[in-house]
Amino acid sequence: MPMEPDSGISPPRNHPQLSWVNLSRNLILAYQSFGVVYGDLSTSPLYVYRSIFIGKLQNHRNEDAIFGAFSLIFWTLTVLPLLKYVFILLSADDNGEGGTFALYSLLCRHAKFSLLPNQQAADEELSAYKYGPSRQASSSLPLRRFLEKHKKSRTALLIVVLLGACMVIGDGVITPAISVLSSVSGLQLNEHKLTDGEVLLLTCVILVGLFALQHCGTHKVAFMFAPIVIIWLISIFVIGLYNTIYWNPKIVRAISPHYIIKFFSETGKDGWISLGGVLLSITGTEAMFADLGHFTALSIRLAFAFVVYPCLVVQYMGQAAFLSKNIPSIPNSFYDSIPEIVFWPVFVIATLAAIVGSQAIITATFSIIKQCHALGCFPRVKIVHTSKHIYGQIYIPEINWILMILTLAIAIGFRDTTLIGNAYGLACMTVMFITTCLTALVIIFVWQRSILLAAAFLLFFGSIEGVYLSSAFIKVPQGGWVSLVLSFIFMVIMFIWHYGTRKKYNFDLHNKVPLKWLLGLGPSLGIVRVPGIGLIYSELATGVPAIFSHFVTNLPAFHNVLVFVCVKSVPVPYVSSEERFLIGRICPRPYRMYRCIVRYGYKDIQRDDGDFENQLIQSIAEFIQMEAVEPQLSSSESASFDGRMAVISTRTIESSASLMVCEQEDFGASNSIQSSKSLTLQSLRSAYDDENPQVRRRQVRFQLPPNLGVDPLVREELLDLIEAKEAGVAYIMGHSYVKARRSSSYLKKLVIDIGYSFLRKNCRGPAVALNIPHISLIEVGMTYYV
């Protein structure tokens, strides 16, 4: 469950008992973080030295080169994970959330960088929106104005964020392959040696099992994850200490940066190319920041600084000490350095730790894809909630099986951890470099520090990561191309979906129904108004969508009460249930037309608890009451007749006396609330409820309190609302066909008519994604020429 926002700077604690409670809570979270955050990072010793000394560095396999390699690993671990992430980046959280999307969300709120189409001033009133300092430093204003003014710069920023997301998805494909293959390869070194084919078969069996169990959710085995990683870390620490003392205690001297200079002076260009292997020692570091939402900054700091960092340093030191006296063992450095007596226990723990590390990145991939969808950059997919207790634990079936096929293809296609490692290193370092660039912008626009400080941060960390990245790019022909191809494929999907969605939204925006036309029709809209509520879904947060004019001109009757519903994402991680609903009125009171905006954060999960209709009716009733008391909410004084919106809190609803709610115990066909006067429709609804027992919609009856002292017009409106609810609720959506105009370029026609059309046909329908019961759904066909 997401914890309280933790900016990483703990407030002073005066009360000793309170301080102890806070510390004990963080220690428990630190323990839990081992299984979720550090599985990937802690299994790197399985393949780092092998990756460093493969290729052109084979000519430099001597003690000095091994000392230099260890020195590089030590300082890389110290500067990037410890200094950059633990001491700096964990403070750049967004209401306790981390990752590239959290940084982008912070930037969108402190400057107008967002490309989300239907943003409103009311969104800035959200409590989570105001996170961070409110003052604006004058030194950053020219840069901010430049970025806000040029749409291309904002688009470039979004592309950079999406590239980071695509690289994380690439990690989700590569990590299971390299982790499991590296751990299982230990079976080739004992007395009963397995062939390459047998090792590959066992790897594939483990990978298929790992992905097949994803639907269970991590919470069912999560209690085992932390102990596995802790036992693994203790094991590699003890083995590293033993090897250091037994083989070559002089390795301690290699902590000095002098050995790095010596390493490069001897190896030259070959040493620079080997950095692609060194950076594998920090793969998985991004998880410390990305998974911040499930823990606190302090708990992750404690776990890394006092357990993970020392264990990894001692293990790499021990391996280097062993290799300095056993140079031929470099290709299998980890398993050869294990004393024979403990080989099998360590092999089992290594395999389990590899599975845990893979599990963490797969879960992170699901989360990233959900966040991309919230930004309007990924097609709608089925999201399954795997835990009732842990918020944010999700499973996406389609993505899971795609990841499995790609992972198996990489494992079978390469069969070599070094080639897979080249792809892995490139993906991880790209994400780190993007995070550094975004953090530099956060320092300027969110933390309100000087541009010089941000430039110093970018220059120091960016130059180090840039050197590693350049080394990783050299290895593109030797497997690194996999990361680029995977990222390119996902980027194309994201771009096509985002482009098509934006074009569709702009069409809706420019073809809104003029309110003057509606007002000219009168309260009846020129048609018969029949009992019932019509919920008209649209992406527009203002105005009336063009789809409504199709109804009015082509149908002889329409519902008595109309509600225009807009479900949208806002650039905050979570929107509290108290702030979720925005209610307003369209046209004067006799029209009985309302607007409801339902807001979700980029990490929020839209649960179908079957209570949306009832919450909506109560919210509208509360708005009608508020409007009578607060005239400024009324649209009658507004020339546009599209009135101001009001946030209707669920707490207000619960304490309100607007409507009395009576629960209905009988859910069958004999239900006293008739969804329709038609017996046929009643029997259909009964059959639908029997087929969908998992969504048992709460059946309630609303009544006006007998002692409600309100204006007669308000009472009449509330009674109309209750009667309409009793008559039934219909959900109305546009079934849109998006096509490029004839005058469009060939490329645009290719993107819209083929790419976007294909994605729309093969993703989940909007009605399913919004949990709309199909028995109550009315769809209207409409062609968009964009």
What report would you give on this structure?
This protein has 786 residues and is of the alpha/beta class. The chain has two domains: 45-131 and 143-358 and 397-498, Up-down Bundle (Amino acid/polyamine transporter I), CATH 1.20.1740.10; 522-629 and 644-653 and 700-785, no CATH class. 56% of the residues lie in helices and 9% in strands. It contains 28 helices and eleven strands. It has helices at 16-37, 39-42, 48-52, 63-88, 100-110, 141-149, 151-184, 196-212, 222-247, 258-267, 269-273, 275-278, 286-290, 297-325, 333-336, 343-374, 397-414, 417-445, 451-474, 476-510, 515-521, 546-554, 612-629, 650-655, 679-691, 712-727, 746-762, 766-769, and strands at 384-385, 394-395, 528-537, 557-569, 581-586, 593-600, 646-648, 660-663, 700-703, 729-739, 777-785. A seven-stranded mixed sheet has the order 7-5-6-4-3-10-11, with helices on both faces. GO terms for molecular function: potassium ion transmembrane transporter activity. InterPro entries: K+_transporter, K_trans_C, K_trans_N. The chain crosses the membrane at residues 65-83, 155-179, 199-216, 223-242, 272-290, 302-322, 342-369, 390-412, 424-445, 452-474, 480-497.
